[in-house]
Write a structure and sequence with these properties.
Helices cover 47% and strands 16% of the residues. It has 323 residues and is of the alpha/beta class.
Length: 323
Amino acid sequence: MSERTAIVLFNLGGPDSLDSVRPFLFNLFADPDIFKFPLGFVTQKLCAYMLSRRRAPEARKGYAAIGGESPLLENTRSQAIALQLALAEEGAYDVYVCMRYWHPLTEEVVAELKQKSYAQLVLLPLYPQYSSTTSGSSYNEFMRQCTRQLYRPETVYIEHWYESDNYQRAIVEAIQNEAKKLPDPDPCNIELLFSAHGLPQKIVDGGDPYAEHIVATYEAIADTLDWPNTSLCFQSRVGPLAWLKPYTEDVIKAKAQAGTEQILVYPIAFVSDHVETLYELGIQYAELAKQQGVAHYRVVPALNDNPLLIEALKDCVLGALRD
């Protein structure tokens, strides 16, 4: 067995071409931790096929607008390289990227880890706030693959890490730096929106702590910034179900109607830029703000390989191994 420890970074994954949008969506809709259809496996696959076929044309538009593919894998690999360099002076660590719905898929990563005989793994979701639909799904699939492949390493699982001082400090500094690019950088004249990925309300009502974690993150950062005009809102809802509110587009409209001239948006649930930060926030909502009469609208880039984020991830790994 290898004496080195493998750090496995969990993330969503994203299509690497317009042709892979539909199979990516199929993998997403086939996830039993998110979509639970009656009658089991066969119905799950059939519904995933139909839903991915229906949703693919609209989804392709988003990916086409940002270059024809998701940048999530590239951004996550940059984080992995930076984290491995940061950990090099602390011990023998190797960092791997493991995506839930597109390559490198969990099955592939588990096979490689087994082939290289790692006895100890640290499973680190790149979702600071826990949800059964993100971190939980990635963890469940990883353990299923370990069982199927008869791989039994010692695993340390980091469930959430939104409390990290370095993570929160990175967000504060990113917001402050982006505000300087507005015509009037005075916080008194900026509406700062923290936009998080939404979640169906019924999942939260069922005990999922995601909303609680998002609110705690928002409150900690807002308290540190001490800006007068901040709001928390939620994006990316789909389907007829009630999702976490208020919705980002509704908040943008309300701020515009109140006469707001400058809106700055921070993607609070994301640590890597991808279609939801670049297209949904950066293009769709920018157009909405313009239509509503907002003169200046900016999105703060996700942290990506920000050194403070890498320090936060390093702290998470070393802290988990000490516990």
